[in-house]
Each structure stands twice: as C-alpha cells, then as structure tokens.
Amino acid sequence: MTVEDVKQDSKMQTELKRKKTKRSKKKTAAERKNKAKTCFLTELGGHCLLQSIPCLVGDYVCAITGDSIRVYSVYTSDFVASLTGHTDTVTSIIPHPTQPLSIISSSLDGTVRIWSVDDFALLRTIQVAENGVNGVKATENDLHLIINGSYAQISFPQNSERVTKAQPKVVVEDALIDRISEFGSVDRQWSLNSKAKRIAFLTCTKFMKIYNISTKNWRKISFSCFKDGEADKLDYHPREESIMVSFSSGKNVVYSNLLEGKPASTTYHWHQGRDDAAEQGGVKITFDACYSADGVNIMSGGSEAVFVVENWKNTTDSNNRSFLPRLNAAVVWVANYGDWTLLSLADNSILLLNFMSVKHSISGFTKNVMDEYEAGLSWDPNNQAIVANSRPGMLQMYSLEKNKEVSKLDVTRENIVFESASYSSASSIVLVHVIEKRMVTVERKAMKSIQQDTIRIWTHEGDRWIDETHIVRGHVGSIQHIQLLNQKCFISAGSDGKLKKWEEIDGRWITTHIGGYRNEPIRHFDVSEDQSIVASVSKSKCVIYATSNLAFTDTLLPPAENSVNLNRVFFCRGENSHNLLVAKKDGYYLWDLITCSLIRIVSTENCQMFKIWRHSSLDIFVASEKLKNETNLKVFGGSSGKLKISAITKKEIISAHVFDENKIIVLAKGGSLLKLSTKEELEELKSKCEPEMRVKETKKMTPVGGMLKETAPIEQVQVAEKLILSSDKLRELLYLPAYLLPKATDFSRKLLNTLLEANELSARKNELKTGKNEAEEEMEVDIKEESDDEQVNLQAEKKESEMAKVNMKKLEKLKNLQVTAKFGLRLFSKILFSRIVKIN
User: Fold this and answer.
1) Where is composition skewed (Basic residues) in this entry (predicted)?
2) Which of 163, 283, 353, 822 is the most exposed place for a label (fewest CB within 10 A)?
3) Residues 694-714: what's their mean pLDDT?
4) pLDDT reported for residue 757
C-alpha cells in the first residue's frame, strides 16, 4: 500500500465518522423532539385546610396547606394571600408573642420562619436543622421546638439578618419520636404552661410526662386506670397548673394538683367515641378540645358535628353548658382566640364563631366525608367552575380562578343523618354530564337488597340550576353511564344491558328508542364526533349501534387473553374519529372501524388499576396507571399513541378533566385538586418565594394608623390631612408597618415623648404672637417719623409684609402641631383604655 493509498483511506474514514456523527446528532435531536415532557403534579386548589391547628392573627385567619400558609379575612372569609417560602411541609403555625400581625411557622425543611401577615412578607428565616422541625411554640425571648421528635430550645436571634443559622439546644431527646403524624406535626401531643416553666408531652397513648425546664425533673402521669380508648390530645391551662387530656372515647379528663402529691382528675363526657375512626383526606376523624383563652371554659367538637362549650368549674349550674349542633361535618380542630373560635371540619372548611354564632365559613374544595367522588370531574360553563361531589346528595361548583366554591347544588334534598361520623341516609351522586345550559345527574340510593337510581334533568336559568324533571327507575338495576347529545336528547346505559335514548317532546321526556345485545350489562359507552355511532362495552366485548335508532351494527372482540376486563370506551377525535379506544384493566386496545382491525395493544406491567379520560373535542387522552407504590399519569395522542407528558405521584388518582394538552386538572384521593407543572414552572415558583414586600407603601397601615384615618376630625373636615402630615415623627410612629412596631412599653414611651415635644412647640405660640404685635407697633412708629422719606417708607412696608408672612406660616404650623398633639393624646388614651379593659 502506497502513501497515497493510506492518505485516501484516512480521508474515507474521516468522512465516514463525520457522516455518522451527523446522523447521530439528527437522531438525538429527533428523539429530543419526540420525547415526552416530564412534569410534576402540584397543588392547584381545594387545598387541605386540616393539616394542623388554624391560627388567628388580627383580622386574618392562617391555615397550613402543604408547604405554604394561606391567609383569609375574618370579616369576609375571602382568600387574601399565600405565604410561600418553605420548601417542605409546614408542620405548625403560631402567633408571634411580641410582634402584632406576625406569625411563626415550622417546617420539615428544617427552618423556622417569621412572617408579616398584613404585608404578606417573609421577615426572617432561621435554619435550625437540616430537616424535620415538627412543631414550634414561642415565648418573649425563646423558641421551643420539636426537631425530629426531640425537644429543643433556641433564643430569638438578636441580629437584623433575614437569614440566620441557630444551633438548638436539645433538652429532651426522642420526647415525641413515636407521636409524629403523617404530616410531620405533633401539635396535639405537647403543650407549654402559662409561664413556660413546664412542658407536657403525650409520649404515648397510655401516659403523659411533665418536664420542669428549670429543675430538669420529670413527672409521669399514667392513664392506665381509664379504659376509654387512647389519649389523643393534651392542652395546658392558660393560667393554672392543670392539663386537659382528650381520649378517643369522647371523654375529656382534667388533671390538677400537678406540682406535688397525687394528681386529681375530673372526667367530662360529651362526644361519641370512635375508636374505629375512618380516614378522611389523611386526617383521622376523632374529636378535638381545648381551653378557652381565659381558661374558664372547655371547648370541644366531635364526630357527631356538635360544638360544646362548658364552664368546667361550675358543674352545679344546669346552664353551664352551651351547644352548637348540626355543623356540616365532624370537628377536627378547635382553637379559641378570645371572642373568636375557629373550628376545622372534616369537609375541609373552617368555621369562624363569635360567641357561639357562626359568622363566616372558609372553605377549600369540599371533601366528601367518605372520600367518595363517584361523579368524577365535569365542567360547568355557566359558572366557569369544576363540578364534583360534595357532601352526600350535593354537588359543588369550584372556581379554579377564584380558588373557592362559587355555588353548591342540593340534588337529592334529603335530610342527612349522622351515624358514626358517616352519612347514613343520603343518596350519592354517581354520574354528571353538562352541555351548555342542560345538565343530567344520576343519584343512587342503596337499600338492603336493591339499588334505586334516579335521573334528574336540570336547566340553568339566571345564576342557578333548576330541577326540571326526574325519572325514577329509568333502568332495571343501576345506571352505568349517561351522556347528553344536545339540549333535548340524552342516552343512558344500565346493568340491565339496555341502551335508552331519551328525548324531550312537547315538554315531556320519553324513551324513543331502546337497544341492546344479549342483555350483557353495559359498563360504559361513547358517541362518535359526528353523533352517528354509539359504541358500548361490556366485560368481554365492544358493541356498535346506530345513534338514530340504537340498532345493533357490529361487535368487536378483543384478542383471547387470560382475563379480559374491558371498562371504558372512547372515540378518537379529528381526522382519526374512525378509531376507537377501549380501556381494559392494565391498558387499552385501539381499533380502526373502517377496516375493523385491531391496530394497537398497550399493556402496563404490574398495573393494578388503569383509568382513562379524553378531551371533549381534541384527540388528547389522559391515563392513570396505579402501581404498587405510585401512580403514573400519562398524556398521549389517541390515534398516534405518542406520549406527550408523563408524571409520577404517590397519590391515587380518582378523576381528571382535560382542558387542553397543557392544562389538565386531576382529582386525587383525599379531595386534592392537582395540576401538571414543568420543572421550569416549579423553579419560577420557587424563585418567587424570596423575601420581598408584596404591598405598596400606601397600603402599609397598622391598626393605629387605621384608627387615625377612620376617626372623625376634631374641628374641621379640612384638618384631616393636616393631622396626618403635621409632624414627621408622629406620622412615622402612627404609620409604622406592623412587623416594625416595637414592644408596647417602648412604643408608648416614644409616642408620649413625640406628643410632649409637640406641646412644647405649641407653647411658643403666644410668644410668637406677642413678638408679632410688638414688631407691628414699632413699624407704625417708624413709618410716621419718616413719612416724608418715600424710599424708607417703601422698605419698611416690604419688611413688614415679609415678617407677617413668616409669622403666619409659623403660627399655622404650630396650630396644626397643637391640634395633632391633642388628637394624638386622645387617641392614645383610647387605645390604652381598650387595652386595660381587655386585660381586666
């Protein structure tokens, strides 16, 4: 081989490598283009408000929802803001002991954070552990923490840095290691006494331990003498050395004489116990109790949906107990803040009570107590809201934009009776379909031996749905599916193997056609895009009918498999509307109805449950594959089978609604509404969690400034703005943001000093007036003596005019300062008087 041959061979090899690299790059680009987006399921709405005890700060109610804190107005119950910043589940929130309108939160991300509620700002982040802060309580100088089950303390940082690190001092190791809830919280299991010298731990369900922080001594109190269930909650009296323990049997036991000798105990039994409590949205429904803020009453609520307030020391008076019955659901949390009481209910709502009267209700996505959402998700175009099950016998219209329930519909209008915290007499709504201003629903009444299904037809008029008519026993047995074709026609299918076409003729709904095949129970059906064909599925086959008269056309048999179990059927959309997708227990089949051929079989290994949903007009499908420990969510094209989006979640998916390829709403077990979010969207959300002021300067107003603005002027209407602007020092004090207010003693001293300064300045008013009068008299004499000198006369007049202007400005300013001082003193006296009345 010559040198030329070697060179030529080398060139050929180089060219081949270049072409191979080029082909590889093209292939990689194509794969990247066709690769499905990996998304995450994040909380969209219907936030669970039951994770921990809600908190009242000023005019705001704060509730934990996942890794954020939602803020609501006390007076309107409207959602105000979301405090975001934690990167893991929030475990506890409490009011700040010294800063008004501020709260402290703990989280499994290992941080304790301080927030300004009225400004929606993150003020400080304290890193105390790498993870696992299960609870927080605060005194004036210290923070008391539960970190990974151990009790620890830190002092409030004295520096002004927004982000600080603190080394907690572990006082009691593994104090509550076995009592951490699935949300990571221990709010029920520990409590501080009023002086923060002793702390009680509900170490296990059979005894509690009291730790003396000063002497480091322990005292153990056993519950073994009580055969009334497990201890679930304890609460220290706000003024005395007594502890109330709540048991799962419905009993509250108050322990006193805790310092020495044998402790005394008094038992109160108000609520029905539920040792076999069901799970609702991850929260165990038992009951909750607490002392009132003044310690006079015990407040509790139970599974029978009754709130009880009793003067626990005055047991001889027959009127010492008050009841608030017929709440919407079982009581999960009770918290009292003086005149206001917060009740968290199992249907995911918070009631705001003022002196035993329900003033407002804060509601997320209403949770069904039995966690059954058989009707799935539908869309109401009239209310622009998601339609889903609510309380048994009711539907809720939940606005995604407003993030609240905008309407509710009592479908069955039945009297609901509680039995062991479940609804025993209400029918359940199992099917819903909406087209424009027409809706059809199916309700199911379970009896001893049979099921009775009722079809209701609704019309939307004005701003509400009206029950136009109802059909009892439309099918023999249960109704499996129902679908509107237009405003005056729908089709239903039942376990009796019949398809029925219903039409409105002369104001009456009648059955015009009936179809079926061998009386095999029909599980589901769908209508083609042009409404010419109806396809139904039974357990083992798919049957085709003509829509016009429901005449039998053909059958489709799946391949022979060990256990064929068909459950749903959908026509594809668009140019591939002739394709039919049939779901089975672990995947789906795809048929071409033109050639009557099976063109695709998709199966998922180890799939325990396969569910599928489709967009109403687009060829977009969403599939849920439940595996052993997780659920896969996939978005794909029906005819192409191309995977567009994939996501993994630990939650079990109940239903989904497809708006478009990029907007899919998912309903998970426990009543959570989720959405698909990309990694970029999550990063953008995280970047927005940096500490920042979220309110304009003009809106930063404390209660003091608010009182000043709302109080009527003392003398004239025109004085109002001058009162605010007359003194810079006074204005700065009265309009300080809440999170910058000093302690009450410091604030009072500064305010008084400022007002006294104003009074000293105003005292000079008379001196200036006297000086002005003397100057005027002297001028008059000078002018008379030099009357024949015109130049001197003009200069004197000019000087007199200038001095008068200056003095008038000074007098006006001093007048405003004097009025402000008087007004400020009166205002300050009013504030002090109200505080004294509250304390007394």
Assistant:
1) 17-27
2) 163
3) 40
4) 65
Tokens of 830: 């009013």
Tell me how crowded residue 779 is: count the other CB atoms within 10 A of its CB: 16
* Burial label, 32 (beta-carbon count in 10 A; 0-12, 13-18, 19+): exposed
CB-based contact 611:622 (threshold 8 Å): no
Length of the chain: 840
Instruction: Kindly state the greatest CA–CA separation across the chain.
Output: 132
Amino acid at 22: K
Give the H or E element holding residue 754.
helix 744-763
Higher-pLDDT residue of 590, 425: 590
Name 676's bridge partners: 41
Q: What is the DSSP letter of 483?
A: E
The model's pTM = 0.69
The residue assigned the tokens 């599916």 is 481
What is the per-residue pLDDT for 729?
Answer: 67
Question: Tens digits of per-residue pLDDT, 778-800?
Answer: 434 333 333 445 555 556 655 55
Q: Cβ distance 474 to 455 under 8 Å?
A: yes
Cα distance between residue 88 and residue 107, in whole Å: 6
Sheet (strand 264-269) strand order? 231-236, 243-247, 251-256, 264-269
Per residue in 346-371, pLDDT tens? Answer: 888 899 998 889 998 888 788 877 77
Distance (Å, whole) CA 256 – CA 263: 6
Separation of alpha carbons 616 and 622, rounded Å? 12
CA distance 708 to 693: 24
Distances in whole angstroms, Cα of residue 311 to Cα of each of 232, 318, 319, 320, 321: 22, 10, 9, 5, 7
The rounded mean pLDDT for the chain is 79
Structural domains in the chain plus CATH codes: 46-157+168-183 (2.130.10.10), 186-364 (2.130.10.10), 367-473 (no CATH), 558-685 (2.130.10.10)
| Range name among 375-389, 427-441, 787-801 with the lowest pLDDT average | 787-801
> Residue 320 burial by CB count (10 A; 0-12/13-18/19+): exposed, middle or buried?
middle
Rounded Cα distance between 372 and 669, Å, is: 8
CA 8 to CA 421: how far, in whole Å? 87
Please give the Cα distance from 767 to 760 (Å, whole number).
12
Higher per-residue pLDDT: 697 or 153: 153
What is the amino acid identity at position 205? T
